[in-house]
Amino acid sequence: MLKNYDCNMDIGIEIPLRTIKPSKKKSSLRKRLLPYLLVSPYLIFVSVFVAFPVLFCFFLTFHKWNIISPMTFIGTDNYSRLLHDRLFWKAIGNTLKFLLLHIPLQLMISLSLAYLLNQQLRAASFFRSSFFMPVIVSGVVVTILWQQLLGYDSGLINRVLMHMGVRKIGWLVDPGTAIYSIAVMATWKNLGLYVILFLVGLQTVPTQYYEAAKMEGANRWQQFYHITLPMINPTIFMVVILSTIGGFSLFIEPYIMTGGGPLNTTLSAVLYIYKQAFQYYNMGYSATLGFFYALMIMTVVILQKKFIEKEV
Fold it and tell me: How many helices (H) does the chain have, and how many strands (E)?
């Protein structure tokens, strides 16, 4: 009986060991593959919608292609054409003019409104939602609305000016004011987003700092300059970066309101790239412009990060 019992015990021990080993291998393999399976949707998305377009764009920069006929390899001709393209550099200049007004205006107005909303005001939630409303409205709708407001003959703003005895202003037809009028409109459109961002940044500043500053006799301006601004520097940096990227992406406003006119004074770089691709069907040259423009934006953002972002 003892021998049989030992034999059964031996058999009972050996069988489970043999059956458990493969399952352990399978479970360890699953654990190793699980992270890759979890990130695979993101990797597929990046590969299809980011990596492939960038590589294909770089490939197109060395070719001439109008979508219909086969590609023709032309080497670096597109790059030499870019360097001598006066209209493209004019579009770059127009975009920079837009940014020179848009970014400071966006910063000052959104920060001022957020600072006011951060106070104990009645109906503060109503004002927050009101400022954010233009952000969720379609950009095309907002552009058409402002096109009607800024019209030269029938625009509401010029009508009000005429009733006040002031001569009409060519907001969108005067080469000297058109790009700045678009900058004001774009600032109004995106103002609510940056107000919310600044409001979140202001609410993260500890109140103990203000209390200590009051005890030291600091006035409101000193508190704002020495406490508020340094503490919300990450928010300021984020707003500047978002405003810069959004400004460099200027397209809908000049496309609908002016078509790039008058005299190409509102022709943005993105609008020019679009015209080269879908009006003149110069896909290779358009890809070259886009690739160069993306590198330029990245350089500007890196410089902004170096000079604006500071540790608190």
Answer: 15, 2
The CATH number of 86-139+177-311 is: 1.10.3720.10
Q: What is the pLDDT of residues 24-40, one digit of tens each?
A: 667 787 788 888 888 99
The partner residues of 72 in beta bridges, in order of sequence, read 64
Which residues sit opposite 64 in a β-bridge?
72
- DSSP assignment of 243-311 equals HHHHHHT--HHHHHHTTT-STTTT--HHHHHHHHHHTS--HHHHHHHHHHHHHHHHHHHHHHHHHH---
Q: What residues does each domain of the chain span?
A: 35-78, 86-139+177-311
For the stretch 222-260, pLDDT in tens is 888 888 888 998 899 999 999 999 999 999 999 999 999
Residue among 125, 148, 147, 145 at smallest CA distance from 137: 145
Give the span between the Cα atoms of 304 and 56, in whole angstroms. 29
Report whether 169 contacts 233 (CB < 8 A): no
Q: What is the DSSP string of 82-121?
A: HHT-HHHHHHHHHHHHHHHHHHHHHHHHHHHHHHHHTS--
